[in-house]
Write a structure and sequence with these properties.
GO terms for molecular function: 3',5'-cyclic-AMP phosphodiesterase activity; metal ion binding. One of its GO terms (biological process) is signal transduction. Belongs to the cyclic nucleotide phosphodiesterase family. PDE7 subfamily. It catalyses: 3',5'-cyclic AMP + H2O = AMP + H(+). This is Phosphodiesterase. The chain has three domains: 42 residues, no CATH class; 205 residues, Orthogonal Bundle (Catalytic domain of cyclic nucleotide phosphodiesterase 4b2b), CATH 1.10.1300; 122 residues, Orthogonal Bundle (Catalytic domain of cyclic nucleotide phosphodiesterase 4b2b). It is an all-alpha fold. It has a two-stranded antiparallel ribbon. The structure holds 2-acetamido-2-deoxy-beta-D-glucopyranose (NAG) (2 copies) and zinc ion. The site of one 2-acetamido-2-deoxy-beta-D-glucopyranose has 3 residues, from loops.
Length: 430
């Protein structure tokens, strides 16, 4: 096909898709001519056609794949989602889906990149949600496929595998005795949906980046929990589109949407100190009462926060892979910021940062305080296991740090700076 014809087709498709889709965002760093942040909002977008832009066509594949039309064709059969040579091995892994050592990377390979769909569908089944809420399994699967496809597989970290990992961790927390005996099917349903969708359509750059590049989402959400609001609204969009709960009353659907929002918005790391001090004072007063729905939902917010940043609490083999991926994403952002003279964000400069420094700071200021309180709330073997891995992993990174620098620098100075961006509320957590 000639280039002109390809472009003609592409423009027709883009026009057609943008007229239907709203809120999807993507970021294309390969463009040489300008800082190019693609926005497919309600409004039409301008696509300038030039030979140089042909490259961009590739990045529209996601939209081709995830458009309604193509979705309808590619939704896997409920019985053949795992229908390749790895079928047996993946099914076998699912029998141990509640193990803290669950290897989500291996599971993703065995399911041919469908870890989020396979795992979440399995958990819906396991928790009896399909029966209890009389869900149509085809609609459920279609919903999960749409969710999985709206994650950006080109993000090193914020992709569908991270979402699957968080969902798996959430499942482990839901099984903890304190929670499992008081949770209703409704709570479990919301928790799993929120976990699976909590980073939906993540652009692979952070909020400060969206703010300083005047991204329309920053404007839309007034510079506050910009990404989290977008993840939530994207989830709501897919819930409505799938019709998964069309048989429920409007009142229940609205309640569901707002409660999923409360869960997803709690994953904004810049709000961590507020959630943590609330959690801490409840634990100090010993007044948490899980028969109370509000208290239960607060605990589910804390559980999802834990699930979201539990990477350092996994075994070293898993934890190390996550660390590399998240650093790659940070450094990629830093490269773009350098290239366009936007000022490099904290933790994003590959010239001055190291994985070890970033991880030690992350563990010290965010993960340890959160999991310390979680272990007070749920003092179980799982909590002790997580704290055990956390300690060992931190020691390993300190070993790496010593090897690299020879200096006694313990904590990344960038986390001091980061406080102003990411942790604006308070002085240090102890
Ligand atoms: C779906 O699965 C059923 C049962 O295994 C099979 O008979 C059918 O051919 C499959 N349909 C498609 C479209 O793959
Ligand atoms: C968001 O932040 C930008 C950059 O600091 C600022 O120009 C803009 O006025 C802010 N918007 C709101 C609604 O606060
Ligand atoms: Zn996340």
């Amino acid at each position: 096909m000639g280039i002109a014809l390809i472009w003609c087709l592409a423009l027709i498709l883009i026009k057609w898709i943008t007229s239907k889709r709203r809120g999807a965002i993507s970021y294309d760093s390969s463009d040489q001519t300008a800082l190019y942040i693609r926005m497919l909002a309600n409004s039409e977008i301008e696509v300038s056609v030039s030979a140089r832009n042909v490259r961009r066509l590739l990045s529209f594949q996601r939209y081709l794949r995830s458009s309604r039309f193509f979705r309808g064709i590619t939704v896997p059969n409920s019985s053949n989602i795992l229908d390749d040579d790895y079928n047996g091995q993946a099914k076998c892994m699912l029998e141990k889906v509640g193990n803290w050592n669950f290897d989500i990377f291996l599971f993703d390979r065995l399911t041919n990149g469908n870890s989020l769909v396979s795992l979440t569908f399995h958990l819906f089944n396991l928790h009896g949600l399909i029966e209890h809420f009389q869900l149509d399994t085809m609609k459920l699967r279609r919903f999960l496929v749409m969710v999985q496809e709206d994650y950006h597989s080109q993000n090193p970290y914020h992709n569908a595998v991270h979402a699957a990992d968080v969902t798996q961790a959430m499942h482990c927390y839901l099984k903890e005795p304190k929670l499992s005996k008081s949770l209703t099917p409704w709570d479990v349903l919301l928790s799993l949906i929120a976990a699976a969708t909590h980073d939906l359509d993540h652009p692979g750059v952070n909020q400060p980046f969206l703010i300083k590049t005047n991204h329309y989402l920053a404007t839309l959400y007034k510079n506050t929990s910009v990404l989290e609001n977008h993840h939530w609204r994207s989830a709501v969009g897919l819930l409505r589109e799938s019709g998964l709960f069309a048989h429920m009353s409007l009142e229940n659907r609205q309640l569901m949407e707002s409660q999923i929002g409360d869960l997803i918005l709690a994953t904004d790391i810049s709000q961590q100190n507020e959630y943590l001090s609330m959690f801490r004072s409840h634990l100090d007063r010993g007044d948490l009462c899980l028969e109370n729905a509000n208290h239960r939902h607060f605990i589910l917010q804390m559980a999802l926060k834990c699930a979201d940043i539990c990477n350092p609490c996994r075994t070293w083999e898993l934890s190390k892979q996550w660390s590399e991926k998240v650093t790659e994403e940070f450094f990629h952002q830093g490269d773009i910021e350098k290239k366009y003279h936007l000022g490099v964000s904290p933790l994003c400069d590959r010239q001055t940062e190291t994985i070890a420094n970033i991880q030690i700071g992350f563990m010290t200021y965010l993960v340890e305080p959160l999991f310390g309180e979680w272990a007070r709330f749920s003092n179980t073997r799982l909590s002790q296991t997580m704290l055990g891995h956390l300690g060992l992993n931190k020691a390993s990174w300190k070993g790496v740090q010593r090897e690299q620098s020879g200096s006694g620098d313990d904590v990344d100075p960038a986390f001091e700076e980061m406080d102003s961006d990411i942790l604006p509320q308070e002085p240090r957590l102890s």
